[in-house]
Amino acid sequence: MRKQPRQIRPASSPEPDTGQGSSSPALHAVPPSVPVASLQGDGVRAVDRALVLLRAFREEDGPLSLTELSRRAGLNMTTALRLLATLEAHGFIKRLPSGGYLLGPALLLLGDLFKRSLRMEHHVMPALERLRTASHESAAFFVREGDQRRCVFRLDSPQMVRDVAHVGEAQPLGRGAHGRSLIALETGESLPVVSRGERLAEIAAIACPVLDSKGAVAGSIGLSLPLYRFTAESEAACTPLVLHEAIAMTRDLGGDPAPLEHAAR
């Protein structure tokens, strides 16, 4: 008896992973959203209005009614209700059985993701580059370490005559613009802090603290230059530059720049 030829069956494709295991995943996959660039006028306006609704909540608020949210956002109740339903479906809003609205847990997940993905150099280096480009002077960022301050980022001035400093150097806290800037909110000193020949006889500097999402001082950003170039004109030009970058970086880190603005000279 002749043997029948063995038939080889093609390998079956692996089953797609549906994510339906024995335990529910913490985050569920959602369909990809429509890119903002492809939205037409009404779509962009809806996104803008939804963000206005989210920003209508304040720290001291409890649950807010539809009427109050509509009033704060400047929307009619029908539009606000529709947008709130969409935000609720994505976890950005939570509606209580009583009818009140709270911010939803998706915002907490995004906030945690923001903090975990935060890299200081991503914010510091562009700010230092802007300062150096605008002033043509050396820009640096210091952090506090106990009773010292350490330079962690620096860009040297493109000019031939400039101050000399190195990343990693530790210097006393409380002396020089950066040393005073790191404790300025504790001492009540006006911002930005300006020093002239204070730590080094021939160097002037301007510095301002940067705050993190918890309101703590994350570091000090500023400019340094030879004292002979630190004229009234250069001080008037550089001081607002440093303050602006400190405020901008504070916002980038999720902080509130109000203490910096209140202490501004």
Question: What would you say about this model in short?
Answer:
The chain is α+β, with helices and mostly antiparallel strands and 265 residues long. The protein contains 9 helices and 8 strands.
Structure description:
Residues 1-39 have low confidence and may be disordered. Strand 6 and strand 7 form a beta hairpin. 38% of the residues lie in helices and 18% in strands. The protein is of the alpha+beta class and 265 residues long. The chain contains nine helices and eight strands. The longest helix has 21 residues, at 232-252. A six-stranded antiparallel β-sheet has the order 5-4-3-8-7-6. It has a two-stranded antiparallel sheet with strand order 1-2. The protein folds into two domains: 37-116, Orthogonal Bundle (Arc Repressor Mutant, subunit A); 118-262, GAF domain (Beta-Lactamase, 2-Layer Sandwich). The radius of gyration is 27 Å and the shape is elongated. It has helices at 41-54, 66-73, 77-89, 105-117, 120-135, 176-181, 184-187, 232-252, 258-262; strands spanning 93-95, 101-103, 138-145, 148-155, 170-172, 193-196, 203-211, 217-226.
